[in-house]
Amino acid sequence: MSAACSTVKMSDKNGDLSFIGQTATQWHDAPKETITYVPKSETIMLVGGLTILQDKLIESALASIGENFVALPNPNFESFQTGKAFGNRGQCNPTYFTVGNLVNYLQKLRDEQGLSEKEIVSKYVFLTAGGCGPCRFGMYITEYKKALRDAGFDGFRITSFEHDKGIFQGDDEMEQILNLSPKFFVTLVKAIIIGDIINLLGYKMRPYEVKTGSVDKAMESCRLLISKAFEEKRNLTKTLWNCRKILANVKLNRLQPKAKVLVMGEFWAAMTEGDGNYNLHRFLESEGAECIPQPVMNRLMLSIWEAERKLLKKETLEVETDKKVDFSTVKSRVLIKLAKVAVKTHFGIYAKAIGLHDYEIPNMEKLAALSEEYYTLDCEGGEGHLEVAHLIESVKDNLSHLTISVKPFGCMPSSAVSDGVQSLVTNRFPSANFLSVETSGEGAANFYSRVQMALFKAKQSAKEEFEALTIPEEIPQKVHNYLYQPHNAKAGSAAKLVESLGV
Ligand code: SF4
C-alpha cells in the first residue's frame, strides 16, 4: 500500500483546468507511518466468512498449492460487539461481525502469542469480498480499515475479491500478495463446492438422526478426510466416495413429517452459521424443521450469470452500432463458458461420488425468467432478483412449507427492494408461506418468536401432507438410508419417501 498521493486537477466539463485555480488530490486510505511489509513468501492470509466447514476446507486446499492461508474462527456475538465498538454507526451486520472477528483474532495474536502490533500488521493480510455495488457493500473495506486503525492495527492489509467483477478479478495490489493463477481459482472453487455438498447433505440428514450429534460427527470425519486429500494431493472424487461409508453409518429415522424451510435472503445472513443470524438453521432444526440452505455456489452462479448478461449487452451494442466485435469480449465469453462448465462438472462429479443425488445447481435462466415480471434483472446489489425468484420457484415447484428471507437490519437490496416486491408475489401466490426477518445482532427474542409463528403453519402443512398418504405396513430399510433420495412432487422429505413407495 502506497502512502503517496497523486495530484489530480479538477476540470470543468470542457476540460478547462484553470478556472478553479486549485488542485484536488486523490484520497488514499493510507497508514500514518510507512510500513515495511514482509515478503509474499512470509505473508499469512486470513480467510473467513463462509460456512465453518468451507473455511476449514479452503485452508487445507490452498495449503496444498503452497498458499499460506489460515481460517478465522466463526464470528460470534462478541465479534459483533467488538465490530460495533470500533466501527462507524449505521453499518450492516456482516461488517460488524466480520471486522470484529478479525480484530478479536489479531488481539489474541498480540495478547496470547506475544506478537507486536507492528509484526502483525507487516505479516498478516485479510482476504474478503468487496465491491462497489449499489449498497453498503462498496464501503466494507474502508470500514474494516477504520476499525482496524482504531483497534491499533493501522496499515493492516485487506485485499478483496470484487463481487461485481464476477470471475474477472485482477487488482494490482491483490496480485502483489495473491497468486491469482487458474490453479488458485480452481482449487478455491473445488473447496467451496465440496463444502456446499457436505453442508447440503448435513442439512438433509441432521433432522432425522437417531443419536443427537451423530451427523455433525460424521461430517467432521468427512471434512478431515477431504482436508487430508487436499493436503496430500490425493484423488478428491475417490475420497468423497469413501465418505459414503461414514455417512451411511449414521442411523436415521426419516419417516418423521418435518416442515421443510427454504432459508434464503441476503447472502451472508442466509449462509452464516452462528450469532450472525441467531443460529437460524440450528434453531429451525431444534423446532422440528428441515432446512434447505443457500449454498455459496448460488452466489457464484449469480456472479457468472451477471457477467454473461453484461457481456451480451455489450456485444448487442457492438452489433447495433456496427462496431467491430472486441476481441476481449470473445475472450470473456470463453472464460464465462469455461467457468460455468467447470462449476457444473465439478459439482456433478463430487455430488455423485458422495451420494447427493436430488440437488440441482440453480438454473439461473429459469430463475431469471420466473422473477423478470416482478424484478428488474439489471438491478444488481445483494442477491438481485434471486430472492423473488426463489420464493416463486418454491411455491410453483412445491419445494418447501415455508420460505424465510433473512437479512441484516436495513439491508438495502433485501429489505428495501426485494421485500417490497415480495408483497406483490405473496398476493399473486396466496399459498406462499413467506417470512421476512431482519437480524440486528440484538433482539433475538423477537426474531425467534416471528420464526416460530411462521413455523407453526409450516409444521401443520407438513403433517397434513404426510397424513394424507397411505403408509405401507412394511417399510423397506432403504427408506432410512441417506442415499435413497426419491424425486416427486411432495415438499416434505418423509412424504416424498412414502409417496415413492407407491402404495
Ligand atoms: S446487501 Fe444488504 S447487508 Fe449486504 S452490504 Fe448491502 S445493504 Fe448491507
Q: Estimate percent helicity.
A: 40-55%
* Number of alpha- plus pi-helical segments: 18
Terminal Cα span: 68 Å
Question: pLDDT below 50 for ≥5 consecutive residues: which ranges?
Answer: 1-11, 166-170
Averaged pLDDT, please?
89
Q: Provide the succession of SSEs.
A: EEEHEHHHEHEHHHHEHHEHHHHEHEHH
Ligand types: iron/sulfur cluster
- Into which percentage range does the β-strand content fall? 5-15%
Give the radius of gyration. 24 Å
Going by CATH, the architecture of the domain at 29-178 would be 3-Layer(aba) Sandwich
InterPro entries: Dehydratase_Activator_Redct
Organism: uncultured Sulfurovum sp
Protein name: Activator of (R)-2-hydroxyglutaryl-CoA dehydratase
Describe this structure in words.
- With 503 residues, the chain is an alpha/beta fold.
- The protein has a domain at 29-178: Rossmann fold.
- Helices cover 50% and strands 10% of the residues.
- The chain contains 18 helices and ten strands.
- It has helices at 52-63, 77-86, 93-111, 117-123, 140-150, 172-177, 182-205, 214-231, 236-248, 267-271, 280-286, 296-320, 327-354, 364-371, 386-396, 412-428, 444-467, 493-501; strands spanning 7-9, 23-25, 44-47, 69-71, 124-130, 157-162, 259-265, 289-292, 402-408, 434-439.
- The strands form three sheets. The protein has a four-stranded parallel beta sheet with strand order 4-3-5-6. A four-stranded parallel beta sheet has the order 8-7-9-10, sandwiched between helices. Strands 1-2 form a two-stranded antiparallel ribbon.
- α5 links the parallel β5 (124-130) and β6 (157-162).
- The longest helix has 28 residues, at 327-354.
- The radius of gyration is 24 Å and the shape is globular.
- The termini are far apart.
- The model is unreliable at 1-11 and 166-170 (pLDDT under 50).
- The site of iron/sulfur cluster (SF4) has 12 residues, from α16.
